[in-house]
């Protein structure tokens, strides 16, 4: 178990350490301080809109409370970031009901870390005593099927898979039958993420969703979109596409350990208005964390 602060080292260097350096040299709050702060926030991929909104709120508070100590401004920025990152704290954690199956359809572009995230989420739920069924509905790539099987072996979880090229919705049909008859608590469905044939992919995902709902009218209970934090604004554009097709209800943001632009977290919260459930901060099985805005901001600023 490595500490979140260490895993976010790249963002900390680019963001926190720059903010620290900025405030260290300041005796008073002035326009120049705000300008430099703006530059740092935008560079960390916080997004122009979020940055402007945040600084505007901070300016008002400084004026209203007649503050002159730069350190007071620093702690205001930290607090504003925390509250900004929280879409709805109550709804942020993916809470399982007592009675399953709880069906999670996992979507996202190839390479973002979908299969890895499924493996990690499976391990997390199993550790909490839940039975997990993995479903290989990306039948487009043989590698995707075998990778999911490897995670199944590693976790000791059953995997429902057909041959490469099979109809993804028939895999899901079988999986739902198994899940209901055997009473699995959680069903994690891996789906395809080929973007070059976008329309077909979205139709495929919609069909999968219909098949799930035929078995269980209120399912899928979660459509989890996996986004690679290193892709910045691109990830947000992808999100819009998936959201239009299948209605995203939660985000898993991966590879935060590999980027200096961890501010993307704020941008996603603002643009998508969907809670970030998990963050990926490495390739190991315990490198998936429940996202918690307070913890995240503390890890960046400590
Ligand atoms: P998929 O095509 O979306 O299923 O992506 P994969 O699950 O195969 O992941 C693609 C690559 O990203 C693999 O090498 C993973 O080990 C890596 N990966 C996934 N999540 C993370 C993460 O949080 N941090 C880092 N550094 N690598 C990750």
Automatic annotation (TrEMBL):
Annotated family: Belongs to the GTP-binding SRP family. FtsY subfamily.
Residues annotated as binding GTP: 108-115, 190-194, 254-257
Please provide the record's keywords in A-Z order: Cell membrane, Cytoplasm, GTP-binding, Hydrolase, Membrane, Nucleotide-binding, Receptor
Tell me the protein's name: Signal recognition particle receptor FtsY
Span of domain SRP54-type proteins GTP-binding: 275-288
- Native species of this protein? Desulfofustis limnaeus
Keyword Metal-binding part of the UniProt annotation: no
Q: How does it assemble?
A: Part of the signal recognition particle protein translocation system, which is composed of SRP and FtsY.
**Which superkingdom does the taxonomy of this entry point to?**
Bacteria
Q: What does this protein do?
A: Involved in targeting and insertion of nascent membrane proteins into the cytoplasmic membrane. Acts as a receptor for the complex formed by the signal recognition particle (SRP) and the ribosome-nascent chain (RNC).
Give the way it sits in the membrane: Peripheral membrane protein
Identify the enzyme class: hydrolase
Q: What is its EC number?
A: 3.6.5.4
Q: Where in or outside the cell?
A: Cell membrane; Cytoplasm
- Name the lineage: Bacteria, Pseudomonadati, Thermodesulfobacteriota, Desulfobulbia, Desulfobulbales
Catalytic function, reaction form: GTP + H2O = GDP + phosphate + H(+)
